[in-house]
Amino acid sequence: MEDMPPIYAPPGERGPKPLKAPNLFVRRLTYIAVGSAASIMLFTGFGFWTVVSHYVIRFAENSSVNISAGLLSSERDSFFTDTSEGKHKVVEEIPPGRFDLLDERIRQFLNPFGLLKVKVYTRDERIIYSTDRAIIGERDPDNRRLRNALGGRSDSKLVRRDRMQDLANEQRLDVDVVETYVPIYDDDGEVIGCLEVYMDVSRYRLEIGQIVSLAIIVIGVIMLAVYGTSFIFLRKSTRKLKEAQDMLELYAASDPLTGLYNRRHILARARQELARLHRERAHDEGHPGMSFTMLDLDHFKKINDTYGHLVGDEVLKETARRILATTRVYDLAGRFGGEEFIVVHPNADYTQAQGIASRIWGAIRAEPYVIEGRKINVTASLGVATLDPATEKDFMPALKRADLALYDAKNTGRDRVA
Fold it and tell me: Which residue stretches of the chain have pLDDT < 50?
C-alpha cells in the first residue's frame, strides 16, 4: 500500500481531537518529577541541617561538661561545703565579700572558651551564682531541662537569641547559643546541683549553611542528571507512541486507499456540522444551511474488468484528488463505499451545492485519467440535496434525498448532476 495522504479537512475541523495521553503523561510526570525533586532537596537540606546541628550540639555539650568539670574543680572551695554527715553539697549562698573575686576568676577562666553565660543551681533549683547578677537567688521550678539535669542527665539545646550579654557585659545580637544543663555530682555519684552553660556557636552557622547548600547542590545535580536522562528517553518513547497514536487516528478516520474520510467518520463529521448549524441558526435565521453531494463513478466495474483492480484503485485515488481540487476548503469529502463518494457542504444552500457538484462533475470528465500510460475516460453521476434546518433535526433524510437524486442521474443516462 502506498503512503496514505493526509485526511482532507480544514484546520480545527477534523472531528474528534486525537487523544493527548502521551503528552499528558509526560506533562504530569514532569510535574511529579519537579515536585519530588523539590521535596527531596527540601528534606535533604533539612536532614543535613538536623544532623550537622546535632553534632554541633553534642560538641558544645561535651565541651560544656568538660569546662564545667574544670570550673568546679578550680572553684571547689567556693561552690561546695560539707554536711554534718561528711558529704559535699552546693553552698546555699556565696558571701558578698567573696563574690566579686569569685566572679572575676570565673570570667577569666571561661573567657577563652567562647561562653556567654553561666549559672549554678542548688539541688532545690535555686540560682546561687550567675554571670548575670540580677537573677541570683531566683528559683526555676518549671524548667523541665533543669529537672532532667538534676535527675542525672545532661540536657542541651540549640537556640537563637536576638540579643544577649556576654562575659564582657557587651550586647551580642543574633547569637546562636547551645544551652547545656550539666549535673553536679558529689564523691558518691549523687546529684547535688546543676551548672547551666551558654556556649556561643554562631561561628558554625555559616559552616552549617555551606554544608547544607553543598548537599542540596550535589543532590540537585544528581537528580538533574538522572531525571534529565530519564526524561530524554521517555520523551523519545512518548514521541514514538504519539506517532503510532496519530497513525491509528488516521487509519480510524480515513479510507486507506484514497485518504478521504471513511464512511463512519464522514457521518460523524456530518453530525458535528449539523450541531454547529443549529447553534448558528439560533443567532442567524438566514443561515444558508447544509447540503450533501453523493457521487458514483459510471461503469466502474467495466474499468476493473478491462484494466484490472490495481488500475481501478488508481482511478479511485485520482477521483479523490479531483474532488479535493474542486471543493471548498471547508467542504468535507469521504469515500462512502466502493466507487461511491460523499461530499458534505457546510454553509451551502441547494444552488451553491449544485455549483460545487457541477465543478466536481466537470473535473472528473474534463481530462482522461492517465494511469500506467493508459488514458481512461471516466464519468460520474452526482446527486445533490439540502437539509432544511428549520424542520429537520437529523441529516439522514437529506442524505437519502441526495442518494435518490444520484440514482435519478444514473437512471436518466448517467454522466450528469441531479
Answer: 1-19
